[in-house]
Structure formats: structure tokens, C-alpha cells
Amino acid sequence: MKLLLTFSRKGRADPGREPVIARVVKETGVLINVEKANIDSMAGEVLIDVPDRSADQIRQRLEELGVSVHVMENAIARDEGECIDCGACISICPQEVFSFDEEWQLRVNSERCVLCGKCIQACPHGALSQQG
Ligand code: SF4
Ligand code: SF4
Questions:
Q1: Tens of pLDDT along 52-101?
Q2: Which residues contact 7 (CB under 8 A, 6 or more apart)?
């Protein structure tokens, strides 16, 4: 399951200057896969992937450490009314989230998404968006 972590790096007690992910891995023994990280001097946003069975435990511990955690159930949403099954998103996605089924209809496996945003920009019909 993918979890989007956000935290402030302002002040002294914030989690942004602490190795919270490393700490949670050490404490829980759960391996966390960091898929994307944007961190600057003011704030951080990190996308992690954790085993489904451990997601509640990881989420709870991160929140205790001051991290805001958002469960990404459906990272990329497709508006079926707008999609014309052109396949542009298939070509551009680095994670093979999109594919055609046997009837050339678009299939979306959003569990693989790392929220790079390339497909949203590439879609000629504005059919794709990122879930908040
Ligand atoms: S790029 Fe947009 S219109 Fe084309 S298949 Fe993907 S979602 Fe559908
Ligand atoms: S945001 Fe990036 S990884 Fe996710 S579906 Fe779009 S192109 Fe693929």
C-alpha cells in the first residue's frame, strides 16, 4: 500500500530533521520502500510503499512522530467519459500502470504508480488526475 507522508521542517520539534522513516523501520522491522521524495528546507513530501498487512502499524507510528499520512488508495484517477483509449499514457508511464485489455480498453493498475505526473500531462483529453 502506498502512503504519502508530509511534514514541516520548520521549528525544532518537527519530524523533518529526524530520520523518522529509518526509525520506524528499525522499531517495527517492516521494510519501507521510498518511491519518491521531495524535501527542501521548509517541508517534505515522501511517497512510500509498505506491505498491506503492516500499513496501519506504520501509519500509526509515523503519525505519533508528527508526520501527516495519507493513504493513496487510487493514486491516479481516470475519467472514463473523457478517455478515448488512445494509449498515450501507456507509452509515457515509467511504471507500466496502464495497459490495454483484450478489447483495447484501457486498464489501470494504480498500485504501481509513483505519482510522477507524466501521464496527466500527456493525456490529450484531460482524463487523468491525481487523487488528493
Ligand atoms: S492518454 Fe488519456 S485518453 Fe489516452 S488512453 Fe490514457 S487516459 Fe485515455
Ligand atoms: S503518475 Fe507517473 S507513475 Fe503514476 S500512472 Fe502516471 S505516469 Fe505512471
A1: 999 999 999 999 998 999 988 767 889 999 999 999 999 999 999 999 99
A2: 14, 15, 16, 20, 43, 44, 66, 67, 68
Quote the domain boundaries for residue 105: 76-130
Q: How remote is the CA of residue 124 from the centroid of ligand 1, in Å?
A: 7
Are residues 43 and 95 located together in one domain of the fold? no
Residues 65 and 20 both lie in one domain: yes
Output the average pLDDT for the chain. Answer: 89
43 and 91 share a domain? no
Of the listed ligands, the closest to the CA of 123 is 1
- What pLDDT score was predicted for residue 88? 97
CB atoms inside a 10 Å sphere around CB 2:
23
Residue at grid coordinates 511534514: 7
